[in-house]
Amino acid sequence: MASELTNLLERRLLIVTGKGGVGKTSVATALARLAAGRGLDTVIVEVTDPPAVPALLGAGAVETQREPRELAPHLFWLRIDPLDALSEYLELQLPVAGVVRRVVRNSGFRRLLEAAPGWRELITLGKLWYLESRVDAERPRWDLLIVDAPATGHGLSFLSVPTVVTDTVHLGPLRRHTEWVQQLLRDPARTLVLPVTLPEELPVKETLELRERVRGLGLRVGPLIANGVEPAPGIDEPERVLEALAALPDDAAAPLPPVRELREVLDHSVRRAALQRHFLAQLREDHGEPAFELPLLPEGGDTERLAEALERALEGPP
Amino acid sequence: MSASDWLERRVLVTVGTGGVGKTTVSAAIALEAARRGKRALVLTIDPAQRLADALGLPHLGHDAQEIPADRLRTAGTAPGGSLAAMMLDTKRTFDELVARYAPDEAAIERIHANPIYQNLTDALAGSREYSAMERLHQLAAAGDYDLIVLDTPPAAHALDFLEAPRRLTGFLDSQILKLLFAPARALGRTGFRLFQFGSSAVLPLVERITGMEFLHVVSEFLLAFESMLEGFTTRAREIEALLRSPECGFVLVAGPDPVQARRAQEFWARLETESIHLAGLVANRVRVWPDGGPPPPLDEATRAAGTASLAKALSEHDPDLDSAGVARAVAEAALRFAAAARRDESVVGGLVASLPLDTSDARVIPLFAEDVHALDALSRMGKHVFDE
Questions:
Q1: How far apart are CA B375 and CA B360, in angstroms?
Q2: Helices A152-168 and A119-133, interaxial angle, to 10°?
Q3: Which of B128, B310, B370 is facing A256, going by the closest CB pair?
Q4: CB B277: neighbour CB atoms within 10 A?
Q5: CA pair distance A259, A265, nearest whole angstrom
Q6: Is the CA virtual torsion B296, B300, B301, B306 positive or negative?
Q7: Which residue among A171, B232, B270, B289 has its CA within the 20 to 30 Å range from the CA of B76?
Q8: Helices B176-186 & B212-226, crossing angle to 10 degrees?
Q9: What are phi and psi of B324, to 5 degrees?
Q10: What is the mean pLDDT of chain A?
Q11: Is residue A255 reached through a cis peptide bond, with omega within 30 degrees of 0 on the bond before it?
Q12: What's residue B197's pLDDT?
């Protein structure tokens, strides 16, 4: 049976999402590293400003541009700026020199855009569709697009805007183009949503809700990724050990810190690990599909080590 | 200054990126105010069932709910102190706004029937932020509370919620709508001239892409809001004035992760340009060495020597214990935690140094080993923030 990693890398569009602070950007970047490491021309796409991915890849400040930029072999980065993507789209639709620029620069049009709902999400998805459909020498120009999607609340409006449009608009290019986007998003052979979570109560709960709502929009949800799993101290009977430590004189572990402090740290670690196991179990039980664990790394943002951990997790049993 | 002074303000707005525990910190602050005899309210944005459970409420809703007095007494609340909680309901807040500012029933019906309005919560950029501000304003004006703690929506941008009223009204206020719609409305054909401003006839171009139907829906939506322009504009100015007044303080909530700390700095850098009063910083979920002392510097030699002496002591105390293995695990856990605590200390220290704050206004809440899901855990958090 093909590993989960192979399964993921056969898609064209992976949408990494989850509650804020769960490490979405790091996980998306780690996944992109893995894909690129296997020779796939991979684009990691950011939709928020300021961009965070170039720093995670060890690149300096990189300017936003329309074309993905290669930051490492096979590893490309793109930040989609909605206004620029809108200009690009309008230029493709209205190939009359100067007209689009005049429209986009018009201050009234700008103010309209500031207040207008949904277009940022729609144009961003449109650009993803456009990238996915690019062909070079009769094969796709980009093997894999990995999107670091906005945090949950916004993340969902990001995915639901096409439905609002197709419910509202029944004719014309906008309708047609939105349908193309919708087809890409709803094709499980091409698109998967990957929720990232932490093994804690709120993130787990929110992830399970997110999964339901994403499914409701007709998108396929892939494996869940639980990030930041803390190692359990390798002790079989923590209660007994804590009791023993309580009975020892405070200097029994010298030159290590006082036993009282060691005991408190051990107690904390044991209880944290138990708490996390509890929510991981809940996640697996409710999800009924694989959930992969990534360890809490000493240095947040070390995407190279995270990529190694991700590879081990996705190649192994869930 | 000290954290206790925060509670003297009428409004505290907690801000920060997602996932740092803003909601719980907000509730802990409000609870502490109640314990000190104030009438406090926490207004949360997330559907926080766990918070409702912790407060002993069946669920949080659009209307304020008082936490039962007997529960508050067990948390040591001073006489006169009370705590209420409510959850933001964007749609209902907007419905109320529409009802208040729309000129007539027909206008209300028109806007309720509009597909964009129906998808408002998801679709309209800044609608959550706007309604949070609106609700805050209503509550502050009513004067039923000594302190209101507003838990803002997690935002990628600090200014998302500050700018939301301005964005909405800036557009409505721009006179553009009047210019756009006046002629069309006179003809009873709303929207047909929507994009026909200046000398450039943009409409045919945009229409070619979106179709007339969509333009019609959009212009209807904007037109409906135009009828409420005056109310919205006045309200937005009042909200801005409230947020910038000394009665209102912002509390930055951050986690000890370097990425989160950097985001918190960026957050403040943007808020600072908006003449906002920063009341303080709460660094949440920080790994702190027992007793709050500095994490010991533990090297390999210390580990080896300490592990050996601990193993010996353990085997003497409990001969059946795998004392060598246990000692190794204990030392390992200590080293790991000390390294993490040192890292958190340096990240939080760097963050505090970068903010225009007295160190007494930068407070640390340790990472708890259990979830905060009861009033006593909230009050424990509050003690870390407010006890000198």
A1: 25
A2: 90
A3: B310
A4: 15
A5: 10
A6: positive
A7: B289
A8: 110
A9: -65, -45
A10: 89
A11: yes
A12: 42
Percent of chain A having pLDDT more than 70?
A: 95
3-state secondary structure of B322: coil
Question: For residue B31, what are the β-bridge partners?
Answer: none
Q: How far apart are CA A122 and CA A119, in angstroms?
A: 5
Two structure tokens written together for B277: 């009063």
Query: Who wins on pLDDT, B161 or A280?
Result: A280
Alpha-carbon distance of A98 to B304, in angstroms, equals 73
**Nearest by CB: B317 against A52, A90, A244:** A244
Residue B385: Cβ-neighbour burial (10 angstroms; 0-12, 13-18, 19+): buried
Angle, alpha carbons A146-A150-A155 (nearest 5°): 100
**Amino acid, single-letter form, for residue A231:** P
Measured CA to CA, the distance from residue B66 to residue B85 in angstroms comes to 7
Give the DSSP H/E element, type plus range, for residue B286.
Answer: strand B278-286
| Strand A224-229 versus strand A291-295 pairing type | parallel
The pLDDT of residue B196: 43
Characterize the bridge pairing of strands A69-72 and A291-295. Answer: unpaired
For A109-123, A267-281, A290-304, which range has the lowest pLDDT when averaged over its residues? Answer: A109-123
CATH 3.40.50.300 fits A4-229+288-315, yes or no: yes
- Sequence-separated contacts (24+) of B329-333 with Cβ below 8 Å: B329/A233, B329/A234, B329/A235, B329/A266, B330/A233, B330/A235, B330/A241, B330/A245, B330/A253, B330/A262, B330/A266, B331/A253, B331/A256, B331/A262, B331/B303, B331/B306, B331/B307, B332/A233, B332/A234, B333/A233, B333/A262, B333/A265, B333/A266, B333/A269
Nearest CA in chain B to A171: B211
What is the helix (H) or strand (E) element at residue B279, kind and residue range? Answer: strand B278-286
Q: What are the contacts of B179-182 at 24+ separation with CB within 8 A? A: B180/A108, B180/B219, B181/B219, B181/B222, B181/B223, B181/B226
The pTM is what? Answer: 0.83
Nearest CA in chain A to B314: A244
**Higher per-residue confidence, B284 vs A286:** B284
* Residue ranges of chain B with per-residue pLDDT less than 50: 181-200
- Contacts with B197 from chain A: Cβ below 8 Å: 106, 108-109
| CB of A12 closer than 8 Å to CB of A45 | no
d(CA A134, CA B23): 44
Among A20, A109, A245, select the one facing B202 at the smallest CB separation. A109
β-bridge partners, B151: B14
Q: Look up tokens 């670690």; give the residue.
A: A269
pLDDT digits (tens, 9 = 90+) for A200-227: 887 888 888 888 889 999 999 999 999 9
* Model pLDDT, residue B165: 66
Strand ordering across the sheet containing B11-15: B65-66, B82-87, B39-44, B147-151, B11-15, B248-254, B278-286, B362-366
Domains defined for chain B, CATH in brackets? 3-172+238-291+345-386 (3.40.50.300), 297-342 (no CATH)
Q: Structural domain boundaries of chain A?
A: 4-229+288-315
Which of B378, B301, B380, B294 has its CA nearest to residue B344? Answer: B294
Separation of alpha carbons B175 and B182, rounded Å: 11
User: How far is the C-alpha of B333 from the C-alpha of B33, rounded, in Å?
Assistant: 37
CB contact under 8 A, B259 and A169: no
Instruction: State the number of CA atoms in the 13 A half-sphere of A98 facing the CB.
Output: 1
Residues B256, B286 contacting (CB under 8 angstroms): yes
Which residues partner with B189 through β-bridges? none
CB A74 within 8 A of CB A80: no
Please indicate whether, in this complex, the C-beta atoms of B119 and A267 are within 8 angstroms of each other.
Answer: no
CA–CA separation, B114 vs B214, rounded Å?
Answer: 11
Cβ <8 Å between B200 and A257 = no
Q: Which residues of A touch B305 (CB under 8 A)?
A: 254-256
| pLDDT confidence of residue B202 | 56
